[in-house]
Design a protein that fits this description.
two-stranded antiparallel ribbon, 418 residues, single chain, Nucleotidyltransferase, domain 5, 15 helices, nine-stranded mixed β-sheet, 20% strand, elongated, alpha+beta
């Protein structure tokens, strides 16, 4: 072996480093965060090191960061004179503070847009959704008062407010664990992430999505259509999205939507270009916004919904039989008390009615109830009509540029990308 020769490796990290250099990520970060005089390693190079370390398939504490690069050709990856010991926890910590103060979401979007332009990624459609990430541990954090939150939001140079790791709706079915939320926007072309933001574990998507979409649209300064799930659709959000094109699902908790999916006749549906789907188009002015509603019927989902409906009908039948039997055996002190107890049971029924109701006074001057259980045919028929149906809506009114089948296709792409 020749003396003075040292063997270093770059493995797959050379490809990653090449892509980072091709996108000019180091200069983008340095332009935003600045360069300090006499520093050996700048902020952009530290971010490059963090990316390489993260994609190096290791999980080690921050103080072991230089150890990861000991057998790597750091001068080849970062530049002449840059050695593993320069990539230490102190320098990384200072850069991470700068990144946090600047705003990770803003910086990520800036780089993502450069990548989208470089690789000609289409941004005509942007898909918005969120995910929850459960964590273990106490995560005891200081709680900011409403006054402090308001004050900080009103000050341009104020310190960023950290997210809260706390309990919330768990998408991974672990309500026992605290969590945080990640809001994500990806391109319709290839599902490439272009916007990412961490949020507190108890974030309400319905309250957050409108502001996220509005903020994103302002920053990209491009004509894009935001595609989201039903959390995006509310009167407040539609008001925020007045100047933005959108496509989203309409929640059936809205009375107008529930009535529509229940009453549209099967004969009105037109077959879609997408196999297994058909649709009916309606105009709506919900929230004072002119929009197109597309009532969609999925044959596969209809079969599943009908099977689920039969189980619910059977379950309610068994439950109401038990409750009515128990109710008929009770003695009530007054006619009014008997009616109130009967009304409480009736209010929870969806598929059945209590008919032929009689309240009689017995010899002890107490009252008893009798009745007959009867299927609510009208209600059951409405639920059957609703099976397999959902509504998507858009404020893009021009059918020539955005047809009904295109609406359905783009919404399905958003769902398949989740």
């Amino acid at each position: 072996m020749l003396k003075g020769i040292k063997i270093k490796t770059i493995n797959h990290l050379g490809i990653i480093a090449g892509i980072i250099d091709e996108l000019d990520i180091i200069n983008i970060i340095n332009q935003e965060l600045g360069i300090e005089e006499q520093e050996i390693v700048n902020s952009g190079e530290i971010v490059k090191a963090i990316i390489l370390n993260g994609l190096g398939f290791v999980s080690q504490p921050l103080y072991l960061f230089p150890q990861f690069f000991e057998d790597k050709a750091t001068e080849h990856l970062f530049g002449k004179g840059i050695l593993p010991e320069h990539l230490n926890e102190h320098k990384i910590g200072r850069v991470m503070d700068k990144l946090y103060d600047y705003g990770m979401s803003e910086l990520f979007l800036l780089i993502a847009l450069v990548a989208a332009k470089k690789y000609q990624i289409n941004l005509d459609f942007s898909h918005l959704d969120s995910s929850s990430f459960s964590v273990h541990g106490q995560y005891n954090q200081a709680i900011y008062s409403e006054d402090k939150l308001t004050k900080k939001e009103s000050e341009q140079d104020s310190e960023p407010i950290p997210i809260t790791i706390t309990h919330g709706y768990s998408r991974d079915h672990r309500p026992d664990l605290k969590q945080f939320i990640v809001d994500l926007i990806v391109t319709g072309d290839g599902n490439i992430p272009v916007f990412i933001e961490a949020a507190s574990g108890n974030q309400s998507d319905k309250k957050a999505f409108g502001n996220i979409a509005q903020d994103y649209r302002k920053k990209i300064n491009l004509d894009t259509t935001i595609v989201g799930d039903s959390a995006l659709y509310s009167k407040d959000n539609l008001e925020l999205l007045k100047q933005i094109k959108w496509l989203t699902r309409v929640p059936l908790s809205i009375k107008e939507a529930k009535n529509l999916v229940s009453t549209v006749k099967n004969s009105e549906f037109k077959n879609s270009e997408i196999s297994g789907y058909s649709w009916v188009e309606r105009e709506s002015n919900y929230g004072g916004i002119s929009q197109r509603w597309l009532v969609v019927k999925s044959e596969a989902r209809r079969e599943s919904d009908l099977a689920s409906l039969e189980k619910k009908i059977t379950k309610e039948s068994q439950s109401i039989c038990q409750k009515l039997t128990k109710l008929s055996q009770q003695n009530f002190m007054s006619d009014t008390e008997a009616k109130l107890n009967l009304k409480l049971i009736q209010s929870k029924l969806k598929f059945y009615l209590i008919d032929d109701i009689k309240i009689t006074e017995n010899q002890e001057n107490t009252y008893q109830i009798t009745g007959v259980i009867q299927a609510n045919s009208e209600s059951i028929e409405l639920f059957k009509n609703r099976a397999g149906r959902f509504i998507i809506a858009t404020n893009r009114l021009d059918r020539e540029s955005f047809s009904c089948d295109q609406m359905l296709k783009k919404y399905k792409e958003q769902q398949n990308g989740d």
